[in-house]
Every structure is written in structure tokens, then in C-alpha cells.
Fold these 4 entries.
Entry 1:
Amino acid sequence: MKHFKQIDVAHSPDADDIFMYMAIKFGWVDSQTLRFTNTALDIQTLNEEALKGTFSATAISFALYPFIRDEYALLRTAVSFGNGYGPKLVKKKGAILKRNFKVALSGAHTTNAMLFKIAYPNAKIVYKNFLDIESAVIGGEVDAGVLIHESILEFSDELCVERELWDIWCELAGEMPLPLGGMALRRSLPLTDAIETERVLTEAVRVATSHKPFLSHMLMERNMIRVDKHKLKTYLNMYANENSISMDKIAISSLNKLYEIGYKHGFYDALIDANDYFIPTEYNQTRFS
């Protein structure tokens, strides 16, 4: 019996991450050497587990990556960028936020947390599961909250948008795509396995994107998605699209701008270039040529 190496993949339970992985789960994409398992966790937990090195491959907030760069390589695939949209800072209608307002964020190392902290240095921050942020604002536990994932498409009519984090990003970076989430792979994997993992994950996103209506229907049928089919279509067009298959030069430039901003504002101990942290896929070409 052939022995397959197991790769544990962690991703968030939001629609775009599930969508981008499911081609593997359904057997539409496979490997001759690897087998994959998956775990769904909220983004704060994913970032915390990445800091511990828990999973072989894991979804992360892009803003986290400089903290794990020695243990994980960046993958080019399964990425989510905002382009004219992104997380939203919401409050109760009619509320006026003080300089030191209390806000709920989805995690300390998320991209939205970094941008928020730059824009609102005096705010008092608490961290919550992203699913609990809306109710915390409505219930008065916090003055405001940053909504992410599908929550940006529909929220209580008791709330209104105080500020789009896209606007904060544009003030800092200009009109570039906003890097939100990506994938990282543990460096302890043999390079050939790392290259194969990225190949399979890339193909999974490609296949999912090419069969979006069919796969979306399967996910809805299995009750794996929290929104209706119309919002799912909108959401996937925003965050799981052709640009999610593999980062292009514009996406990488945006990512480097994020790291430049983070370094400038004291979030990172060094200024990094994302190009130095991708898996060298050319290795196989040289080895087997």
C-alpha cells in the first residue's frame, strides 16, 4: 500500500475559505504523494495557532506574516484582497464616538486591527470572535466594532457604518488592493512536499473558481454557508475570484506596502519583501530537468 504524507490545512469558516478548499474535499483535485485534512477556525484562533506552528498549512491574516516568517513560507494562492471594499467599522445609529471609544475587533494580528490602530490610536480595544461583534455593538458592550467576512454584506438596521477600512487603507497606501488574508506553509516540510502542497491548493482554487455556480450550490445544499445564495455569489465575487488563484505583481506590491506601513508605524521589527518568502517553485524545474 502506498504511503501518503498527511498535510493538515487550517482555514476560516467563512464562505471564501471553504469555497477555495472544497475542490480537495470533494476529490476534484488530488495528489500522488499527499493527502489533505482540514480544520475550520475563526481568524483570531488561526493567527494564534500559526504563532505556535500548529498546522502544516494555514490561513492567516496577511498582517500576521512578519511575525511567523522564520517558521512559515508564504503561499501565492487562496488569497483574499479587498478592492474598493473591506471590513467596516460600525456603531449604533445616532451614536457619537469619543476619542477613546471601546471597539471590538476580530483579532490582534488581523490586517483590519493594524489599520484600525493606526487610524484610532486612542480607542480601547477588546477582541472577540467575528461572529459576536455585531451583537456586542447592539447590546452596548462596546461602542463600535469592525465587521469582517460575510457580516459586511448584511447587518442589523440598528447599526450604521462609521468608516470603511478601505478608506483608511487608501489614505495610507493609495489606490491599491487591500491585502486581507492568505495562506502560509510550515518551513519544516521538505521542499518537494511544499511545492506539491502549493500546486494542489492552487489547483483547488482554480477549479473552484471555474465551477463557481456548481460548487456554490453544493455548499448551500450541505448547509456549509451562513448566507443565502445571492449574498454568497456577491461575497465570492469579492473575495474568491480569479485574483485568488495566484498573486500577481500588483497583489505582491500591495502586500509589500502593507508591510512597509506596518514597519513605519512600529508593528514589525524589520521591513520585509514578500518576494523573499514565497516557496521557490523553480526548484522542481531545476531538479527534474
Entry 2:
Amino acid sequence: MTHRLFMLDVPENTPIAAVARDAPGVEVDKLGPYFVIASEDPVTIDRRATGARHAVWYSCVGGLDGCRIAQWDKDALRLERR
């Protein structure tokens, strides 16, 4: 079962989607005004690799489908299946 994270498609979030796209087994598409980050496996996005400032980092998640946030701190955002 694929799980998905929805993130508003704004310039501030583009680097986060780009880092996610480079992770193995992760697909990044668009649906309306959102990036959709999808994977069958757990996903970890390293904050430092994205260059996102803390305010952007902690406001990037717009919604979840089939997963939960297992880690969301200054280092990484990690998604796991429910």
C-alpha cells in the first residue's frame, strides 16, 4: 500500500520535494496545488540537505494518506505506514 505526504507547491517547499525525489523508491508528483510524495517504504528526508529554514520545515506538511510522522525534528522528517 502506497503512503503519501501532501505538501503545498510553493517555492519554499520545492527543495524539500527535490530531496525527497532523490530518495530510493520515492515518487514526487503534483496534484492540484500540492506536491505528492509517495512511497511503499518508509521515507526519510534530511532537513539539512533541503536547506529549509526551521519555519519552512515545520510548516511543510499539508496532509498525510496511509502514513504517520515517526520523526519530525531539526534533523529529519520520517514517514512510516500506519
Entry 3:
Amino acid sequence: MKNWLVLVLVFILPFIGFAQTKTKVACVGNSITEGAGIEAGKNYPEQLQTLLGEGYEVKNYGIGGRTLLKKGDYPYWKEAKYQEVLQWQPDVVVIKLGTNDSKPQNWQHKADFEKDYVEFIQSFKKLPNKPKVYICKPMPAYRENFNIRPAVIKDEMLPLIEKIAKKTKVPIIDLYTPMLGKEATAPDGIHPNAEGDAVLAQEVFKAIKK
């Protein structure tokens, strides 16, 4: 009887462990990802966690003011959180950077944007667990504020992101188009409120579940 019980446990326990494993989702980004000015529980990664449910673990790796450009004023590359997310080895990585890169002091290095973004994507794709990487088109900047320039995002950055996605063969999550005409959800013209973040979370959710 004991031998039979041991055999059953040996067979079943690995499946129990597998069933309990959660899909790890890392949201990498700037203050919009971090949730600047939003009440607790309402930033887009937190709302994404609610949408995805218990089978997923979503972590917020957003840092305000950070750039994708290595020569930017506050590069994400230099942050401890960048190393943390690499070490966490997520199953899914959602990158939403670029808004702060549109600032004049950063966009003067725009010639490096494609190269730096490709390298950033590859740093995740090279992880041992080979995560699924998504890159986001930034939401619109509704007016110039904090030196963030709407025209640069729309006319220069969005086409570059499409080119980068094709080059690296990663899917794009379009957060620009769904937020057009939703100025009321971003009181300062840049950072969405909880309502705006609900739209972002829904778009990311649809992409992941697709």
C-alpha cells in the first residue's frame, strides 16, 4: 500500500506544481507605467493584473522620467530596476518607453533610437526562459508639457517603432490610436488618470491573451 501511495505522489506532485505556476508579466516603462498621480490599485499594471487574473503575476517596473535612449538624460538602462526585471526572468515583457525621449535634450540623439531599442529588446529575448516581448506605441501627448513633444511622438517615433518591431520580429501594442480624442483622461496632457489607464490595461490584456 505504501509503495502504491509513493508512486501516486511521484506522478501527481509535478502536475500540481505546474498548475500552480503563474505566468510572470513585467511592465517596463516610464511614469505612465509607474502610475504617476494615480490612486493605489489603479495604474495600468495593477488593472492588467485584475484583467489577467490569478494565473498571472504582473510586476510594475515603471520609473518616472526614464528614456529608452542610452544618451538620454535619465536612461532606463542605468536603473537597478532594469537589472531586477532581467533577473526576475519574466515570461512576458511589455515595454512602454519613448515619451520622455521626445524631449529636445533627448531627441537630439534620435539617430541612436533604433539601435538602442533593438538592443533593449534583445536583452530580454536572450534570457534563458525566452520571454515573449511586446513593444508599445506610446499614448498621445495631448499638449506639450514637461518638454515632451506631441509631434515628435506622432511623426517621428511611431514610424520608428514600427520599423523596430519588424526588425526584431516582436508584436506591437498600439496604445496611441485607442487614446486619440481622450484628452479628458490626461489632466496634464501627458499622464493618464485611472480611466485612461483602464484603456491601456485593456489593450495590453488583449495583446497578451491573443
Entry 4:
Amino acid sequence: MDLPARVGPEDIHHASAELDRRGAVILAGYGSSGDALTVAAAQVLGSRLSRLFPQRVRASHDGGPVHLHADSLDLTVDIGGVRHRRRHPDEDYVLIQCLKAAPAGGDSFALDAYRFADACRTADPELWRFLTTQDVDLYGAWPHLRGLPASPRVARHVEYTRTGRRIVRRTDGAVPLHRDPDLEHVRTMLDRFAKIVHEEEPPLPRFRLGEGDILVLDNYRVWHGRDAHTGERAVRILTVCSSDAR
């Protein structure tokens, strides 16, 4: 996809239009506080903003590459005897706020997963059938993560919400269902999917987030990743559900 437009807080209506049109936009000039991230989510989504999940900071030193993915996790915790959802498997928007840019590397890239899926239908019909018809366990590769539900989260990589929005998933947590009769085929297709996605990364245009910049993504439509980096890098991440979420 083309580079996301960079928009200031004085033109938030343009930012919302860009997000709807292209699935990605960079908000500049918001600052690096957690409050700024919450305000940005409210302004860009407006009355569609339905639910916010706890912000999380991701810091890394001399970090390796992060491959193209859509943010996704199903995480519920017990706080004082009351269950609280900290992540939702159908979060439909993600905001990534740069707290500290790496001195070298760490540039971001993004891919329009709708275009990828549409092209896959012709270029690799077998993979397209797998993505659109085969159930997998979305988080089965992470069985020992505290708070992750014991029940498998069963879904297909390409699905639709009841409001008609298309979801195109990409997670390293996906594994075949327990005792799936097509076990070997599912493993083969998951490996093929990962390989093809990784091959999409090198030619994608890179963009760099400066301190206080916020990358806003339609999590159903756009996958994102970043290059390896040296030195310290830190971002704050907020995932949300809109009124259009599944």
C-alpha cells in the first residue's frame, strides 16, 4: 500500500476520512502521553468508538524484525474476584504511539490485506480456499500464556462481521484444531501463508514514526510490521472496538 497520510490534530476530519478510505493514517502533533492516545482514538473514531482496552508499552533493545500481522488476542484476567477483558479477539482498530524512535532501523511498513486476499484468489486458489473456508485455532500456539482462555478460539482467516465488514486475520498464534482430520494440510497451508506474507515485506515502502506520532490502523484490513533496529525503541499501543466490530 502507499504511505499513510500524515495529518495534524487541526484536521481530524481528514484523518478520519483517510482511515476509512485507506485503512491507515498517521496522526502528528498529539504528544507522547497516554491521555493523548486516548484522545486521538476518540477524535478519529468519534461516536463509533465503543470500547477501549488497557494501553500497553512495548520497549525493545536491538530488536529483531516484526513481520506483518494484525493485532489479535483473547485475554481475560481476574481482578479482585471480577473478570476483566484486557484484549479482544475482534479488536477492529489499533493505535501505535511512538514514545522513542530507534537511532537506526525500526521503520514501519503496512500492507492492505484486502488487496492481498483478493489477489490470492487468482494467484493461489488453494491458499484462498484455505483462508476463507478452513477453521483454525487462532491462539493455539500460545497455550501457556496466563489469562488466555482454555477454550480454543476457532475462526477462519477471512470472515465477515454481521454488519458486513470483512476481517482478514494474520497471527503467528494460529494452529490446526485439535485432532483436525486435515491436520497436515492445515500445517502446510499455515506455513505457505506465512512464507508468502514474509515475501511481501521487502518491497513495501517504509515510513518512520517520530516521537508523539500515532499510527492508526483498521485492524480488519491492514497488516503492519517493522524492520529490525539497533538501540532503544518504545511504543505505546491501544486497541479498541468500534460499533462496527464483530
